[in-house]
Amino acid sequence: MKNFLKNNGLWILFAGAVISVALALMSYFSATSAPLVNAVNVLVSPFRSAYTAVATWFNDKQNYYRDTTALLDENAALRKRVAELEADLRQAADDSKENEILRDALELRKQRRELELESAMITERSVTNWTSSLTLNKGTSHGVESGDAVIDGTGSLVGVVREVGLNWCTVLTVVDTDTSLGAQVFRTKDLALAVGNFTLMEEERLRLELLPAGCQLLTGDLVQTSGLGGYYPSGLVIGTVEEILVDDSGAASYAILTPAADLSSLTEVFVIKSFDVVT
Amino acid sequence: MLARNETIFKWFLYSAAAVLCLTVQGAVLQRFTLWGVIPFVCPLLASIPATWESPAAGTVFSLAVGVTCDLLLPAPIPCFYTLVFPLAGLFSSLLSHSILRPGFLCSLAAAAIAFALTDCFACFVLWSRGKAAWEAGAFVALREFCVTLPWSVPVTLLFRAVFRRTHPDD
């Protein structure tokens, strides 16, 4: 064995590289990651979790000594916002009761929204400057599949699972260049397409394109997933309109969206493994 | 000319050094943002070791680094780093054998070649998918190179130490 390795070590390395390339290509045609990619990431997962735990500990210590005045101001503003939201909630509860009575009267199907969620911790953030991705500590062994939507604690869309292994998965965030989501403006119900853009990715923004002619967007309009095609549940908040611009041709307008999820400070997210939404 | 077992030991040391650098990248570097980008030492691992070795051997080592990066990092296409890092290794090795002697200056030039190839290829992939962003890509590439460049010094020292350990007569 020792002599075999001495005589053929470099050829073994070269053969290993060729096999790795073949396995990497296999992942292109597979719903889950290729075996070698899966194996390497399973091996690396504990180290990722360890690094993140140490970094989180340092961040917590740092945040502990933040300015108390700023925290008090933030607390006051949040209390005011909570009061406003509670008033909206009471109104919404009345509207919901009325809606149910009217739906019964018209014999319409009952609305329902059932999401099967799997909580996951972020073990790694963007590892290159050309993608915006997160690595989570859940995978196929927890029921996660490629194409699952990922949301934060407030229900805002964080991204979509791109690659999944045994106990890990990679999520492309909503601002990544490869992101493309069916979207709907909450106020006007106009349908559009939310896409990532490399120029905006660094600013953690994305574009809203294919707006219908005559669409009357306003700054601050809420944009959510449309649910068309059945790939993702409808009603997941993508972001808010920050700016409305005209494209280079001058014929169509598009909007710049600010994501609702705070991508840089997330630590825990929820993967939507399955959903049943009736509107 | 090294004996077979010495050659295998040499490449084992090079691999261990590369793994150490990747560990530092994963544990430390990618958690800090400077000038809006994170330091990215992987192109350095594909180019700097190749300056100390022959073109064929350097290219194969860069290929192995590329395969490892494709296994661990997200990329716009499969085998992104496997395709571009061997080229970086080859050009770096040719540079050290024809123009500059291996050292800090040669490492700087090799790093520039590696980043130019990698980031140009990334811009090309974006363009091929209808999401061209040449200007933004060039700015990201420039910042990424500037922020990573200081790390070429410890990486050069590390691989030079490996070379001297395995080539005591050179």
Indicate the proportion of strand residues of chain A: 25-35%
- The CATH topology of chain B comes to Arp2/3 complex 21 kDa subunit ARPC3
First-to-last CA distance of chain A: 66 Å
CATH architecture label name of the domain at 180-259 in chain A: Beta Barrel
Which fold name corresponds to the CATH topology of the domain at 180-259 in chain A? Answer: Thrombin, subunit H
Helix content of chain B: over 70%
Separate helix tally of chain A:
4
Give the % helix of chain A.
25-40%
Which value, in Å, is the CA radius of gyration of chain A? 23 Å
SS-based structural class of chain A? Answer: alpha+beta
- CATH top-level class of the domain at 180-259 in chain A: Mainly Beta
Q: Give the overall silhouette of chain A.
A: globular
- Total beta strand runs of chain B: 0
Sheet having the most strands of chain B: none
Q: What number of domains of chain B?
A: 1
Number of DSSP E strands of chain A: 12
State the separation between the terminal residues of chain B, measured CA to CA.
Answer: 11 Å
* Helix and strand pattern of chain A: HHHEEEEEEEHEEEEE
For the biggest sheet of chain A, the summary is:
6 strands, antiparallel, barrel
How would you spell out the order of helices and strands of chain B? HHHHHHH
Identify the notable features of this structure and list them briefly:
heterodimer, A: 279 residues, alpha+beta, Thrombin, subunit H, 6-stranded antiparallel β-barrel, B: 170 residues, mainly alpha, Arp2/3 complex 21 kDa subunit ARPC3, 7 helices
Short description:
Chain A is of the alpha+beta class and 279 residues long.
Describe this structure in words.
The complex is a heterodimer of chains A (279) and B (170). Chain A has a 6-stranded antiparallel beta barrel. A 6-stranded antiparallel β-barrel of chain A has the order 6-7-8-11-10-9. The radius of gyration of chain A is 23 Å and the shape is globular. In chain A, a hairpin with a 6-residue loop joins strand 10 and strand 11. Chain A contains 4 helices and 12 strands. The model of chain A has no long low-confidence stretch (mean pLDDT 84). Chain A is an alpha+beta fold. Chain A has helices at residues 2-26, 35-64, 68-105, 198-201, and strands spanning 112-124, 133-136, 149-151, 157-164, 169-173, 180-185, 191-195, 206-209, 222-225, 237-246, 253-259, 268-278. Chain A has a domain at 180-259: Beta Barrel (Thrombin, subunit H). Chain B has one domain: Orthogonal Bundle (Arp2/3 complex 21 kDa subunit ARPC3). Chain B has helices at residues 4-27, 42-51, 55-72, 80-98, 104-128, 134-148, 152-166. Chain B starts with a helix and ends with a helix. Chain A binds chain B through residues 5-7, 9-10, 13-14, 16-17, 20-21, 24-25, 27-28, 36-37, 40-41, 44, 47-48, 51, 55, 124-131, 133, 162-163, 170, 172, 177-178, 197-199, 202, and chain B through 4-5, 7-8, 11, 23, 26-27, 30-31, 36-38, 40, 60, 63-64, 67-68, 70-76, 78-79, 82, 119, 122, 126, 131, 133, 135-137, 140, 143-144.
